[in-house]
Amino acid sequence: MHVDPKPKVLILNTPHKISDGYLSIMNEMADVHSIEQASHDVLAERIAEAVKEKGPFVAFVVFIRWWDTPLPWPYDEALLGPLIETGCRMITAGGAGYDWADMKYLTANRVYYANTPIMAGRRTADTTAMMILQALRGTSEREADARAGKFYDSTKPFAKDARSSTLGIVGLGTIGKLVSEHMQHFGMKVIYHNRSRLPAEEENGAVYVSFELLLLRSDVISLHCPLNEGTHHLFNKQVFDQMNDGTIIVNTSRGAVIDENALVEALDSGKVRCAALDVYENEPNIHPGLINSKHTILSPHCAVANETFERDQQIEVMLNLETFLKSGKPINAVNSFV
Questions:
Q1: Which terminus of the chain has fewer CB atoms gathered within 10 Å of its CB, N or C?
Q2: Please, are residues 56 and 34 in contact by the beta-carbon 8 Å criterion?
Q3: Which of 40, 46, 301, 311 is an active site residue?
Q4: CB 212 within 8 A of CB 243
Q5: Where is the D-isomer specific 2-hydroxyacid dehydrogenase catalytic domain (predicted)?
Q6: How many percent of the chain have pLDDT more than 90?
């Protein structure tokens, strides 16, 4: 009796945080071949060699080793061409963002890109909520005072009260919804703006407004939109000028959504009361004006990083592979085809 061979899958790095049981399941589902992480150009050579010697592959599964540099981005034609030209139809990698993937190229070739929004969403939302509260309380300045032995500085404004403040969320997706839920527990009113309004049952207390009204009504603005051509420098000088004086900006999405030169100017003028940032326009470099400002809360793109994130990310990547092999579409596909 003829038995169809297992589909071939190419993986980048063997997952190291999940149990052997998950690896056994992956090997039962597919004929798995692995290559090791390298710079973009070296990895492109390794992929081409793997396709020639072991391919073709139906899927490319990425288990990034975040501590290894340089990271092998972008995921573009130069890297993925040999895979896609020979029939690869799904790429999956960790993280909620996917600006490092050439989505036009993948979609034009009917290749799914699948991310890990559940793993990233919960942790990023928790971090965002923490940063919003820190910014409202002015913790950076108050900690500096405490370390300097200064108490009861009457020249500084009182902390803002969450219960009398409005949070404006730009991008009420997976992470934005979780942030909305978190901050409503602290008594904040939540408004949001998307390209289009969500169904009422998905808003969960958040109120849809235009972008212009969000700028005018928000005490805190939290950014959760993807980085693309339409959102690059979405927050620029013109946008900052439309805000109320003393607005708080929180960004845990992608750094280039904000024009950092314009943000530094807004911080210096008082237009922005505080900027709480986990992401930056030119990572790993941080704008000197942000570093030197007394009105910033900064973390090094680590919103998702805790002791379990790698394990959960690798499990979610495996789920994308499993659903793709079973149904032809990964559960977390971020693109679709007409």
A1: N
A2: no
A3: 301
A4: no
A5: 39-335
A6: 79
Instruction: Tell me which fold the domain 8-118+308-327 belongs to.
Output: Rossmann fold (3.40.50)
Of the candidates 36, 85, 202, 283, the residue annotated as catalytic is: 283
Task: State the residue for tokens 């928000």.
Answer: 218
Q: Judge contact between 122 and 308, C-beta under 8 A.
A: no
DSSP 282-322: BTTB--HHHHH-TTEEE--S-TT-STTHHHHHHHHHHHHHH
Tokens of 120: 């990233």
Listing DSSP states for 165-220 in one string gives -EEEEE--SHHHHHHHHHHHHTT-EEEEE-SSPPPHHHHTT-EE--HHHHHHH-SE
Pick the catalytic residue: 254, 273, 287, 295? Answer: 254
212 and 195 in contact (C-beta within 8 Å)?
no
CATH topology of domain 120-298: Rossmann fold (3.40.50)
**Residue 283 falls in the annotated catalytic set:** yes
Q: What is the pLDDT of residues 84-107, one digit of tens each?
A: 999 999 999 998 889 899 999 999
CATH 3.40.50.720: which residues of the chain? 8-118+308-327, 120-298
At 147-180, the pLDDT tens digits run 999 887 778 788 999 999 999 999 999 999 999 9
End-to-end CA distance of the chain: 38
Compute how many other C-beta atoms are within 10 angstroms of the C-beta atom of residue 123: 23
Structure tokens that stand for 308 in this block: 């379990």
3-state secondary structure labels for all residues of 110-136:
CCEEECCHHHHHHHHHHHHHHHHHHHH
Q: In what order do the strands lie in the sheet with 247-251?
A: 207-208, 189-193, 166-170, 220-223, 247-251, 272-277, 296-298
The answer to whether residue 254 is catalytic is: yes
How far apart are alpha carbons 175 and 307 in whole angstroms?
Answer: 20
Q: Indicate yes or no: pTM above 0.70.
A: yes
